[in-house]
Every structure is written in C-alpha cells, then in structure tokens.
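Internal ticket - ligand job 254, glutamic acid:
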Amino acid sequence: MTRITIKIGSNVLTREDGSLDVTRMSALVDQIAFLRKNNIEVILVSSGAVASGRSELHLHKTMSDVSERQLYSAVGQAKLINRYYELFRDHKIAVGQVLTMKENFNRSDHFQTQQNCMMVMLENNVIPIVNENDTVSVTELMFTDNDELAGLVTEMMNSEMLIILSNIDGIFNGDPSDGNAQLIPVVKSTDDISNFIQKKKSSAGRGGMHTKTTIAQQLASKGIKVMIANGKRENILVDLIQNAANTPHTEFVV
Ligand code: GLU
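stdout (structure tokens):
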C-alpha cells in the first residue's frame, strides 16, 4: 500500500467571499475516497479553520490579531472537521482530527505519541485530518504555515509523497497572472528557483510559495516526491496519481 500526505490550502477551500466552498471539499473528498479504494493510504493536512471561522462570525468590536485568530480557528475548525466527517461518512470512511503544535515535533516523547496516534488511526482505516492547534499555538513557536506542518507530517509518517494543493498550478517562470509565464514541470532539489518565487502571501491562509518550495526541495533531497498543483482543478488528485504527465503541476525530485 502506498502512503501519501495531501495538504489542502485555505484558498482551495474558500470561495471569494471567504465562505467555505463545500462543493470543492466534497469533490476532493470523493477523489480521496477513490484513491483509498485503489490502495493508497491518505493523511490529510487541511487548512481553512481561520478562514471558515472568519466567514461564520461577524464581529462588532475590534480585538487583537491573536484573539481574532483564536476565536476564528475555534469556531472554524469545528465547522471544517464536521463537514469532512459528514462528507467522508457518505463513502463509509471514518476520519479523525489531529490538532498539533510545532513543539510536538521537537520533543521526542511528544513526537512519538503523535506518530503513534496517527499510525493507530491508519491501521484502523481512519483518515487523520491534521491541522495546527491554532487556538493555543499563538507565539513565535507557531509553524510558519501548514506547508511546514505538512512537510513534517510527511516525514514523520514515512509518506512516499506529498501533494500540496493550492489555487495555482505550480511554480511558474514568471508572474502567473502574466499570460507569458510558463509552468515549470520539474524542479530538482538543487535547482535555484528563488527568482521565480512570488513574494505574495495567500489571501485566505498564512502560506506562500516560498515555504512551499523550501519544504518541497528539502523533502525531495531526501527522496520524497512532492507535487504542487491546483486544488481547484476538477479531478486533480486522481489525475495527478493516474496521469501526471498530462496534468498541470510542478514536481520536485532529487
Ligand atoms: N492553520 C491555519 C488554518 O487552518 C492555516 C495556516 C496556513 O494558512 O497555512 O486556518
């Protein structure tokens, strides 16, 4: 059985008005269910807690960024996991929530507990859905973003591959909004692609291309394949697995 980690970014899961895009979620869940039927074990790292909490609440008073993030993530994570739970249930697949913090990867006892938790879930056919515990993870010890978290989970769980779904097809050799820029299909772990990386941050989440490519090249150098692709494309996960050559994406290799 192949084991892969899939990271879904906030921009994939939210509509332009910031609300949770349940149609998109449902399509991605259908694809993950298909992969499972084809003997691929999946660990899901999903963002979207803060974004979906933000669209749920309409605050009338201002508060600090930290309080706002705590409030939104507390509400949004409940909403998010609930949706996943129901959508996977339609496929008779059980899911479980794993909320974590960066320090859990630095302390060996925490690391092992966490690893054991996810192993036992997989052994019992439960898909782990991982996110940062944004309610209490508020200091400089936070993950840079969920791409960093996904990279750590990939290694911890010995996944053979990490797929990062964003709202862009991959790495372009120029500004992706400029019609002349072209998608780079393959990046080696030793390639210098800093000139191609847009400094822009995600509009809905914390991430950006910089961490994505740094994590991707780190994993690739250890022999773990990484693909960055557009989670808003129809059937993207199944196409990446079955017909990668004809599916827009950037692949990171040794
Ligand atoms: N953990 C954050 C959330 O679920 C996302 C962090 C990120 O954007 O990478 O909202």
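Auto-summary: DSSP finds nine helices and eight strands in the chain. Residues 30 and 248 are 20 Å apart (CA to CA).
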